[in-house]
Amino acid sequence: GRLSSIGKQRTVSDTAAPQDTRAPFNRSQSEGAALGGPGPATTTTGRPERKTSTLSDDAFAEPSSPKSPQEERESLLRPWIPASGVVRLLRPVRAADMREAAFIMGLSQRARQARLNGIGGGDDEVDSSVAPVSIDGAPGELSDLDVYLPNRKLGVFVGSWNMKGDKVPPTVLDFLLPPAMEEIQDVVVLGSQESPANRRAWEIRIQETLGPSHILLRSVTLGVLYLIVFIRRELLWFVTDVEEDALGTRPGSMIKTKGAVALSMRIFGTSLLFITSHLTAHQANVQDRHNDVARIAAGLRLTDGKEGSQAEHAALAERFDYVFWGGDMNYRCNTSYAKAIKLIQGGAHMELLECDQLIDSMNTGQVFDGYHELPILFPPTFKFDVGSDVYDTSTKQRTPSWTDRIVYAARDRASIEGLVYDSCRDVYFSDHKPVYGLFKVAVQPPVGDALKMSTCPSMGNFNRAVYIEGNTRRLARLTVAGSTRSSDNSAACVIL
After folding, report:
1. Which residues share a beta bridge with 156?
2. Quick check: 268 and 308 in contact, CB under 8 A?
């Protein structure tokens, strides 16, 4: 069954270089002041006062009397427009809001005010958060780390899905914005196996789902293995040392279906590594899967970016502050199809887990040494009849198993918190169910000149084409939804 306390948890390849037209964003000014509005309120210490707000339920409530179009716009936009003189540098994005057809954000404050005044947004519809920030703060100011991550905690979403096919699914809301996730995490990582042939279309669909709050930092591919990393827009200028690598475990294969792709990066002073892999299939090939993991761990040539800190030959889990490794691991349950089905139908998932090959292998130190996995409280994710919740009814009758997994490692176990580990049972596009994990990790400040563009020329790069196309499609979709709601005399509308 699902976690009973989940709802309480709070949780490019073709990149384009930043344009010269970007204006520096002064941390000592409010978002409004940086765009020509009023300056921030300050505390007695001289530090700017920060305030966050969320969209209230009243914004979508039925009005007691009909509202004019202007009043409707005001009621929807008001929660996202700061009070005069109040700085809002950090705005958590509620996943529930992003699922609502009437919700839209991502405009600069000047553009928001222009919409409110009915004079159009023009070129101001690019948020100031996608602009360089001052790295060296004035005395008495909050550091960048404390401004953008007030608790020095980074939210990480790691998802894995064997998509089984060459088509992009029509929707991925239940995967990327699951009900268990109250806020969209700072980093969103999607690993997929047997991915769609059109990678760009898949990236655009993810961007369309996440909305303008996140940008595509980089995507890495190996055949039909994809690893796609989105980050919260404001964090772009604090990401350095972005590197990628890939390794096939089937030499000579024309289409790369087995192996791993990986991306490493540093956010402020903390290093992270993300891996997605597809290991050898079939129930009996346990040792082959162990060998795949060992080959991948030894073959990925990525380090944490600190000169002389960790040698390339060190164990992969020891090179980075945090490692997240997900994928179709293909580990099965050592039992019969009939017994597994009986246990599942009786709700005895825990008993079936006693037959899990990966849990047994990790407990005995045969694979993923130094890694951990959150408790599994969801049914087996493989193999389903496509389009249903029914486990394999073909003549092969493959034993239901937890083939799709996410493991993690941390230099300091106390610095990482696992919030949610679940599958998406309402996704029927494949014979696998997607899995995802939500984590909070501690972030350290950068050292020296680590965040200066002179020492990291790739800083600020992201996939602008995907960002524009994804959000253009999102606006078009929301426009249609808004028109439908308006025809039903709903108070919810779409601001264009």
Report:
1. 187, 439
2. no
Give pLDDT, residue 375: 98
8 A C-beta contact, residue 288 and residue 250 = no
Positive/negative CA dihedral, 375, 381, 387, 393:
negative
Contact 70, 95 (CB under 8 A): no
User: With helix as H, strand as E and coil as C, how does the chain read?
Assistant: CCCCCHHHCCCCCCCECCCCCCCCECCCCCHHHHCCCCCCCECCCCCECECCCCCCHHHHCCCCCCCCHHHHHHHHHHHHCCCCCCECCCCCCEHHHHHCCCCCCCCCHHHHHHHHHCCCCHHHCCCCCCCCECCCCCCCCCCHHHHHCCCCEEEEEEEEEECCCCCCCCCCHHHHCCCCCCECCCEEEEEEECCCCCHHHHHHHHHHHHCCCEEEEEEEEECCEEEEEEEEHHHHHHEEEEEEEEEECCCCCCCCCCEEEEEEEEECCEEEEEEEEECCCCCCCHHHHHHHHHHHHHHCCCCCCCCCCCCCCCCHHHHCCEEEEEEECCCCECCCHHHHHHHHHCCCHHHHHCCEHHHHHHHCCCCCCCCECCCCCCCCCECECCCCCCECCCCCCCCCECCEEEEEEECCHHHEEEEEEEECCCCCCCCCCCEEEEEEEECCCCCCCCCCCCCCCCCCCECHHHHHHHHHHHHHHHHHHHHHHHHCCCCCCCCC
Q: What is the pTM of this model?
A: 0.74
Tell me whether residue 121 is exposed, middle or buried, using C-beta atoms within 10 angstroms of its C-beta: 0 to 12, 13 to 18, 19 or more: middle
Residue written as tokens 């090939």? 285
pLDDT at 66: 57
Spatial CB neighbours of 241, under 8 Å, sequence gap ≥ 6: 264, 265, 266, 271, 304, 305, 456
Res. 271 pLDDT band, cuts 50 70 90: very high
Percent of the chain with pLDDT over 90: 57
Report yes or no: 419 and 439 within 8 Å, Cβ to Cβ.
yes
